[in-house]
Amino acid sequence: MRANIGRAAALLLIGIIICAGVYTSLMLAPHASAQTLTDQQKAQLQAQYDELQAEIAQWQQVLNDTKAKKASLQGDVTTLNAEIAKAQAEIKQRTITITTLGNEIDQKNAQISDLEDSIDQGHDSLAKLLRQMNETETESLVVLAFSASNLSDFLSDVDNINSINSALEAQFNQIRNTQAQVAIARDALSTQQDAQIDAEHDVEVKKSQIQDDQTQKKQLLAVTTQNETTYSQILAQRQAQAAAIRAALFPLRDAAAINFGTALTYAQAAQKATGVDPAFVLAILTQESNLGANVGQCYLSNDKTGAGVGKNTGTAFANVMSPTRDVPPFLALADQLGFDPHHQVVSCPIPSAGGWGGAMGPAQFIASTWATMASKVATARGESIANPWDPQDAIMAMSIYLGNLGASAGTYSSERTAAAKYYAGGAWATAGQTYANQVMSKVDSIQKNIDCLTDNSTCSI
User: Fold this and answer.
1) Which helix (H) or strand (E) holds 310?
2) Relative to the CA of 212, which of 37, 91, 197, 452 has its CA 20 to 30 Å away?
3) What are phi and psi of 347, to 5 degrees?
4) Could you please report the per-residue DSSP string of 142-178?
5) 452 with 459: CB under 8 angstroms?
6) Lowest model confidence (mean pLDDT) among 9-13, 131-135, 166-170
7) Start-to-end C-alpha separation, the chain
8) Measured distance CA(398)–CA(364) in Å, rounded
9) pLDDT at position 416, please?
10) Is residue 1 classed exposed, middle or buried when 0-12, 13-18 and 19+ CB atoms within 10 A define those classes?
């Protein structure tokens, strides 16, 4: 019996050590690096933060008042001045946030380091107890009974065994509880790190905004207030730029291009249902279109094997569509929408990446995933059957899916993570990073185009 207990304890120890090894993968700052802010420092930072918040509100009121008036040269300059001042105050405010978060991250790293030290000490104690248990297992209770000089000595030996067993159980519980605390602390640390990334990104966006506004202000100041003709030309240029942006073709993968204004309208409609930012959705669509130029278009030719051919080249492909996972829902979709499944464009497989092709339409859902999305898209769109090649359905589906991946939080880090998961699924932390970076690099420029359409005064001249 005691031998079985000892072996079970040893196996449990191995399991605990393996689990603890998972936690050591995150690089931790040394304990000494934690610089705890004093209460006075925290109060000073909070006071500065509150003052900046009031300043930002004041400049926002200037913007609201100015934009409510008829467009004029002086009004534009006033607006730019307010935008610049507001952005500068927001940068200072976010810098305070970054400082505070940095301090909290240092403290959290120190806490995790202390907890892991406690786990290591627990392992040492556990090993000592297991050695003591092993020593008691060399003899059976019968041998102990007959070798004891008296009943009192025998009972003392039995008490010693029970004491070791109790100590083992207590040590196991302590290690498990400490590991649970480490997991909670790491989750909190991850949240704080994401918040710091978001704050740093906001600072860079505001810096870029200030630079653009200062350039535009310089151009406006070169126009004299008496030269109304010149200012009228500036207004006309802005309107022309907005019209050009709206009319510009927005390429879609495996579907005809639509103009940017239409794509934005679809993305804004989807935002009402999902909360996902239109600029982010359009950035994903742009990235997918770019990928489509390299992946190519294919037709499914063999339902049993999933083989197919290139649409334009006739080149044979072995893995166009998974025959078990995707062919059945693809054929069912063909029946619903009334298309020829062997002459409907899907993505070709990527030889270097392995796996299957078969992704459909602008949003590039494989048939099995689309089957789980179709009813949600149809409900959101108010239609009976959703079509993955229809741009409006595709954008709604993409927005719903990205929202489920966390993009509806609307922060830089949440959108970046959602983009990585959209591309690489469970391998998002590694295989999805390049894709996510490329998507996020497009968001700001797309947002500037959206702002220009919403408010012509933001259009660059």
Assistant:
1) strand 308-310
2) 197
3) -75, 145
4) HHHHHHSSSHHHHHHHHHHHHHHHHHHHHHHHHHHHH
5) yes
6) 9-13
7) 85
8) 9
9) 96
10) exposed
Higher pLDDT, 223 or 267: 267
3-state secondary structure of 298: strand
Q: Are strands 297-300 and 255-259 parallel, antiparallel or unpaired?
A: unpaired
DSSP string of 18-45? HHHHHHTTS----GGG--PPPHHHHHHH
Q: Count the Cβ atoms, other than its own, within 10 Å of residue 147.
A: 11
Q: Contact, 444 vs 428, CB < 8 A?
A: no
The structure tokens listed for 112 are 């995790």
pLDDT in tens, 111-128: 888 878 877 777 777 677
Q: In this predicted structure, what is the pLDDT of residue 129? A: 65
Q: Give the C-alpha separation, 329 to 396, whole Å.
A: 20
List Cα–Cα distances, 45 to 34, 40, 48, 100, 113, in angstroms.
18, 9, 5, 8, 27
For residue 226, report the phi and psi dihedrals to the nearest 5 degrees. Answer: -80, -20
Please name every residue paired with 250 in a beta bridge, in sequence order, or none if there are none.
258
Q: Which residue type is seen at 444?
A: D
Per-residue HEC secondary structure of 313-358 comes to CCCEECCCCCCCCCHHHHHHHHHHHCCCCCCCCEECCCCCCCCCCC
Residues in the chain: 461
Three-state secondary structure call for residue 225: coil
